[in-house]
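A reminder before we start the practical. When you read a complex entry, don't treat the lines as separate problems. The point of joint prediction is that each chain is placed relative to the others, so the output describes one connected object in space. Small molecules and nucleic acid strands, if listed, are placed in the same frame. In the example below there are two entries. Take a minute to note the order of the lines before looking further.
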Amino acid sequence: AQKVTQAQTEISVVEKEDVTLDCVYETRDTTYYLFWYKQPPSGELVFLIRRNSFDEQNEISGRYSWNFQKSTSSFNFTITASQVVDSAVYFCALSEAQTGANNLFFGTGTRLTVIP
Amino acid sequence: DSGVTQTPKHLITATGQRVTLRCSPRSGDLSVYWYQQSLDQGLQFLIQYYNGEERAKGNILERFSAQQFPDLHSELNLSSLELGDSALYFCASSSPRGARDTQYFGPGTRLTVL
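Here is the predicted structure of the whole assembly.
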């Protein structure tokens, strides 16, 4: 069965600090897709990144970077030099190929608070 | 702005009532998904439609139903509402390109059942 675990419920950092949000997943599928979404206080869900299971290359986008490691079933998200605008709930999600469906399984989210 | 629109933004109703939530996908997207976000259950997949046909079902209650119309907009119908149905309901859409398309979410409809 599929599962996404975000063990960190809440994290607080001071502005300009780096912070890493952890995501561990479980799946029996050999082909799957991992996502990160951001939910700011306004409530909408904003897509950040998608990673395919066959592509373990790490990715950097500005202050954001993602570390995908199949060996440890982890897909961690790092924010460098955090800003107050980064305060939000961040969700990691998994989509499996073999189910034939495309729905996302979400973790419980990590609430990040960046203190000015 | 994801390009996915949802109406209404807020909905307050009483137990036992029926409501309809509406979603318009991004231009060109054929798939529509509905998710429920509640404090106790987190974000849960309810149902997916692709080009008018039901594609997948998740933890959707029998009191809930959905459909996708020829113009690709979708409606989620919630009936015999209970206090526990209070939640944020999201619609998402994805394009037909590729096998596992990225889902873009609308702003959500916050349903409060009193």
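Discuss with your neighbour: The radius of gyration of chain A is 14 Å. What might explain this?
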